[in-house]
Amino acid sequence: MKGFLTQNQTLFFTLFISYLLFASAGNTQETPGNIVGEAPYPFNSKDTRDKDLPDITLSDSVLALLEGMSDQDIALLKRAKASRFTGGEEGIEEKITAFDNKEELQAWVDAIRFVIEQSEYTEGRDAPNIPLNMESEEFNAWRMIRPRSLDPEREPGPISLSRPGISQGPITFGYLPMALTKEDLIAGEVDIAILGAPLNMGSGWRDSGANATAQLRLHGGEIGGLDQYVMVAAADVLNMVDYGDVAIDNLSTERSMGHIRSIVREIAETGAIPMIVGGDHSLEYPNVAALADVYGKEKVSVIHFDSHYDAWWGYDAHLISHGYPVYRLLMEGHVRPADFIQVGLRANGPDREAFKWMREQGMRYHTMAEIERRGWEAVIDRVVEEASEEGRKIHISFDIDVIDPAFAVATGTPVPGGLNMRESISIVRRLCAEANVVGFDLVELHPVLDPTYRTTLNSVHIIKACATGIAMRKEGITEAHYLSPVASEHAIGDYYGDQQKFLDKTAQEDAKEDAKEDEEDPKAEDAQKEQEQ
Amino acid sequence: MRIFRSSYTIAFSLFLNMLVLSHCAHAEQANFPSSFIEKIAPLNEQQKSFILNGKATQFVPHRQLVHEVQTRDLEGITLFVDDLMRVAQQMTYDPKTNMGAIPLNLKTRSFNNDVVTPQILLTHKRAAGPFSVNRYLFPESGIATFAGANLAIYPDDLIAGEVDVAIIGIPSDMGSGQRSANFAPSYMRMTNTMATVDEQSLVNPSQVLSIADYGDFTLDRWSAERSINHIAQMVAETSATGATPFIVGGDTSILYATVSGAAQHHGKQSFGLVHFSAHSDNALNAVHTVSDEQVISRLLREGIIEGKSLIQIGLRGPSLTPASLQWFRDNAIQYYTMAQFDNRGFEKTLKNIKRDYRRGPSKWFISIDVSAVNPSDIIAAGRIEAGGLEVDQIKKALRHFCASKEIVGFEITDLAPMLDLSKASVTNANALVNACLNGVALRKAGIKPDYIHPLTREDGE
Q1: What sign has the CA pseudo-torsion B132, B134, B139, B144?
Q2: How far is CA B355 from the centre of its chain?
Q3: Which of A226, A327, A492, B169 is at 20 to 30 A from A169, Cα to Cα?
Q4: Residue pLDDT, tens place only, A74-130
Q5: Nearest-Cα residue of chain B relative to residue A160
Q6: Distance between CA atoms of B91 and B450, rounded to whole angstroms?
Q7: Do B133 and A166 touch (CB under 8 A)?
Q8: Is the peptide bond before A350 cis (omega within 30 degrees of 0)?
Q9: Contact assignment for B135 to A181 by CB distance below 8 Å
Q10: CA-to-CA distance for B198 and B185, rounded, in angstroms?
Q11: Hey, are the CB atoms on A151 and B150 less than 8 Å from each other?
C-alpha cells in the first residue's frame, strides 16, 4: 500500500484534500469534542451510579488487634473498597482473629492493597491511552473515501449493479441499486439507505464483521419484497438503496465510532432513513448520536430491543463496547432517559440496582417478566403507544438476541426465553408503520455460529418488517395493527360472523387504489407535455 | 440418497457400455459356454438373438446373465428374457406415451429472459468503464466482487477499461450432481481471495492486469438447453472486446456453451481445451441434449474442439469405463487418468502433459471441474469423487498453462458451496482461479512460465 501511495502523487494529493474536507466537515458540525479528537470524552467517565462510600469505623477491639500496624495499613482497612475482603464493619473482626500471627495478618493486608492498587489506574505506572503509530502513512487508510475521479464519470443517483433487465452480479441488500454518496441519495430521492456496518469488536464472538454484512446481502433478497400480512412491497413504494458498508477499524471500536457517525449523519441529512445492519451493539451509540446531530439533542427516542439493557459502564478501561451504548447516549445528552424504551430484557443484567437506577432516571423498560405477566398483546400496544407519543421521531435499535435462540442462535450473547419470529416481525412492522421512525439498526449477527442460514434469514425478515412498515406509513396505512383484509379472510361463508366486513374493506381499498391511479395519470401526462414543449 | 446415487452410477456405467461400445458387447458372444447355448436353444429366434448379440448385457452383467440362464428352467428363462426384452422396448421413445420434447408456455409474458436492456433506455447515465462498488479506497467489506475488482456491465465498459480479464459468474445448476453450484459465484465473490500475489513468482496479478467483475450471465434456471445460446453469445461478445473471459460456474453443463462462445469469436478448432475433471463427460446418446455428462463429446462431435487438441486430466471414478477410454483413444484425445499419476508420479506426468500442451495449438481454453480436486481439498463438488489431485498440484499446472500460451478462456465449474460448512472449498476454488490469473499476469509481464522468485527460496538462488 505504501508503494502504491508514493507512486501516485496525484492520488496522494486527492487523499490529502479529502482528509482536509473530512476534518473540516467534522469541525463545523456540533460534534462533541471526543469525536473530533479535542477531548478524550465529553463527560466524567466515572460511573455516575458509583457512590463514594465513607470509610468504615473500626471498633476498639479491632484496633487493638491491629496494634503495631502502620497508619497507612489501618487507613487501607477502613476504605469501603476493602470491604469485599475485610467483610466491612461487621465482618472485619472475625477475619482478623482468624490469623495466627502478625506476619500472616500483614501479608493479608498487603494482598488487599495489591489487588486494589493494581486494579485502579495509577498515573506514571499505567499507560493512560492506547498509543497509535502516528508516523504511519496508512493512519487513515481504513476510512479513505475513494476519490470520484478514479471511476468513470456518472450522474449522481442509485446505480444498478445488475445487467439491466436480466441478471444480478455482485449481490446487494434486497437486490437494490447501490448508492455511494450523499449526492446519490439526494438525486435518487432515497427513502431508505441500508448501510452495512461490519463492526467486529464487541460481542465476544468475531463474526459480526464482513461475513455478517455479506451473508445479510446473500440471503437478503426479500428485504424490499411483498409482505403478505399487509400487502405492501417496500421496494415498490419507497426508493431504497444499498449504501455499501461503512469503514470500520476492526482493531478499535473507539476509532470507528466517529466515522460511522459521520456516514449515518450523511444519510439522515438527506432525509433518508438509515438502516444500519450487521456489527455489534456498540453501533447504537454512533447511530443515535448521528440522528441527534441531525434532528437535535433530545429530539429522538430510542426503542431498544435487546435481552440486555446495555447501560453497563466501568467494567473495563474502554469507553465504548457493546455493553455501553445506552449509558453513553444518556450521559452525553443525546437522548432523554424517558425516551429510552427497552423491550425484551431478560438477561443477567440489569440487576436490582440497575433497575432502581433506570426507575430513578425515568427510563421505560418492558421486560420479558412484564410480557409474561400482562401478555404479549397488551405490552406491544403499550410500547407502540409510548413510541408514538407526541409524534416523536424514533430510532429502533434491534439486537437480535431479543429473539429466542431457537430462531436466532447466531448471536454473540444469546439468552433463552425471548420473542418468537411472529412476535418480532409484528412489533417491528407495527412500530415502523405506526410511529415516526427516522432510524433503524439490526445488530449482533454472527452467521458462523449457525450452520444453517436460519439466523441470517430471520434477521433479514426483521429488516424487511421495518422497511414494510415505513412503506405502509408512506402509503398512509398507520391504523393500529393493520392487516390486509384480502389477505386475512377468504370470505366464503360466514364462519366468524363478520366476513362481509372484510369484503367491504377490500372494496374500499380497491376504490382508493383506483382513485390514486386516476390521480397520478393526468399528472404524468402534464409532465410529459411540459417536457415536449 | 447415497444408495440411490451409487445404484444410479452403476446404472449409468452400464448405460455407457450400451451407448459407447456396442461392438464390445458383440465380442462377448464368444464368451458363452456351450452348455449355455444348449440351454437357450428352445427359445425363439428373437429371444436368442437378444441374448447372443449382447443386448441383454445392457441390463444385467454378463456374469449374472450366464448364472440366471444356467440356474433356471425353461419357463424361468423365458420369463427372464421376456422381462429384459420388454424393458429394452420400453426404454426407447414411444410417440404414443412419451413427450418427445419438453413443451413450453408460448403465451407467457416473458418467454425470453435474456434480453439485455440497451444502455440508451437507462435513466441513469454514466461514462463507459469499469466502476468501483465501494465508497472507500481500501475497502475491507461491502458489496463483494470477484477479486475485489471494479464492475463492468456492458462490452463498452470492458473496452473503455482496456480490460484484460473479465471474471463472469454463470450460476447454472442443471448438472447431474448435487445442487448448489448456483451459489458458487456469490460465495467466490464473498470469499475475496482471488487476484492475490503469486507465491512462486511474487507477481501481483492486480498490478499487471486490468481485471473486472463482469457480473453474472443469465440463465433459464430450469433448462440448460435454453441457456446455451445466450451464454455462448455473451462469451463471444466478451472475447470480442479483447478481454479474456474467466468463468465461474455453475455446473459443468455450461462448458459446452462457453467453449462454443469462445469459438464463435476465435474460430472453431482454433484453440485447444484442457479439461480437469474426474469425469469423462463423453456420453454420446443421452436423452437430454445438453448436460455436464456430454460436454466433451458434444464439443468434439460439433467440430468445436479437435480430439488431438484436447487434454483431459484427473480422470477416475465410475464414468471411467473401458468404453469411455476407448472413445478417448479413438478420438486421439490426450488423457491423463489418476492411475497414470499414481504409477508415474505427479512430476513426471505433469512433464508429459506440458509436452502435449507445448506441441498443441497456440491458443487454449482451460477448464476445471472441481471434481478433479481431491475431496480433502474441495469437498464441495457437485459430482464428488474420492482421490484426485491436490490443489497445490493443480495450481502448478494451471499457472504453467496460463503463462505459456494465449488463453482464450478459463472456467471453473461445479463448486457447490453448501456442501462444505467450513467454506474451505471456496477458498481453494478461488486459489485455482488465482493460479491461472497469475499465469496470465506472468505472460503479460514477459516473465517465463515457471519462474521462481529467488526471495521465495530458502537459499535465495
Answers
A1: negative
A2: 23
A3: A226
A4: 999 999 999 999 999 999 999 999 988 889 999 999 999 999 999 989 999 999 888
A5: B124
A6: 52
A7: no
A8: yes
A9: yes
A10: 22
A11: yes
